Amino acid sequence: MKLTAKLLLVFFAIVVLLAGVAGYIAVWQGFSRLEQQQTVQAEEIARQLQRRLQASGTKRVPETFVRVLQENGDAWEQLRVRWVWLDDNVPEPYRPLVPVDRLVHVWEGRIETITVSDPSGVRHLLTYCPIRLEGGRLGGLELSASLQSLDEQAYTTMIAGLASIGAMSIAGVLVCWLVGVHWVGRPLDLLIDKTHRVGQGDFSTPLNLKSHDELGQLAEALNEMCRQLDEQQQQLRVETSERLAAMEQLRHADRLKTVGRLAAGIAHELGTPLNVVSGRAGLIASGKLSEQEIQQSAQTIKAEADRITGIIRQLLDFARRRSPHRNQIDLRDIARQTTQLLEPLATKRGVHLVVEDSDQAVLACADYAQIQQVVTNLVMNAVQAMDHGGDVLIRMGARSGSDDAGKDSATCAFLSIEDQGAGISPEDQEHIFEPFFTTKQVGEGTGLGLSIAEGIVREHGGWMEVQSRVGEGSRFTVILPEPTD
Q1: Average pLDDT, the chain
Q2: What spatial distance separates the first Cα and last Cα of the chain, rounded to whole Å?
Q3: What kind and span of H or E run contains 104?
Q4: Lower CB density within 10 Å: C or N end of the chain?
Q5: Does residue 209 contact residue 190 with C-beta atoms inside 8 Å?
């Protein structure tokens, strides 16, 4: 409806402009014809007067002029023609109606036309034709024609134009209501409603416009777009689901690979409690122990069995596939549990895991199992980077800053793993998070651990930072958002 009103408004503006221009041209042409006709008549009178003066040789110009007018009265009956002197201080009846100082072109010997209004408001067109006499005195003809009829014609034209515009306005309003609403307004309303539904993600309910104009073509194009978007959205859902499943399988495979590495270190850790269990059981079976000693041996066997069960449970919990579940976690718990899980493997390589525990809880909003996998990968990489033993330092706390893309962050929780290994060259630091990129020897790594860890942290709304120097060691920092209230 608004579009129809705008189109009609533009149409009316053009009509008004054209009508005004046409009326102006008509009035201007009438005025030009009158001015040209009056100029021609002035020249004709001047020629006859000059011939008569040359033939008679008289200097009585006014009398000669009167005779010329009497001879041509019928031809100039619509004009008032007078003889005027163009000197200063000329008495009546030979004084021009226009002050002499305004007749600039007349003093140059040219015909001049001026429009003036009389006391009653009627406009007159005055034409002055200069004639210089033998004595040098300058006189001339003053032709005066009333412009009242021309002004009345202009007024009539203006009234007729306004009447036409008014009639067209009434007709336009009727067209706007009767035709515009049905042909333009209603289809546009349907198109707008459809675009709003598309913006909200609703691609169903095709738009049915029974029209063969541009609006109908737009509706068909919109329906086709919705159909393609719906197909792409369904395909994207399937691909996203498959991608998430593949990522979860990849992460699970990475956990199982880590479990295999841990098993070698835990095997030695399980040896001691198993030897204790076997020895105590042998003593009980020998029958040489007293009742109190048998009870003590049984308690020792139970304690060592619980220790073995706890180690195995930690390993199974780490390897078990879980659905992502984000809630409030304490990074101190993850650091402690991961340290206990990896301590046997680190000790076997002569590495000591040091946790700088904080007195206050270091809270983050994350999935416990996924973040534990990230920390486990980073700690294992730190242990493997230290061929000659040393300390791996694990810190945690709160910080604020921005990521490597310049994204500002509020206060976040962080956990850093710092080793004393060989370090990473600046060239390799640019690629360490790329899948299948590794600096380890063949058979020691797949190049997926850091890529998986970085992907998990990104999915949690955090990021990872790397600081390393060749020969001095590396520090990997995990930044995670704090839980919101």
Answers
A1: 76
A2: 49
A3: helix 104-107
A4: C
A5: yes
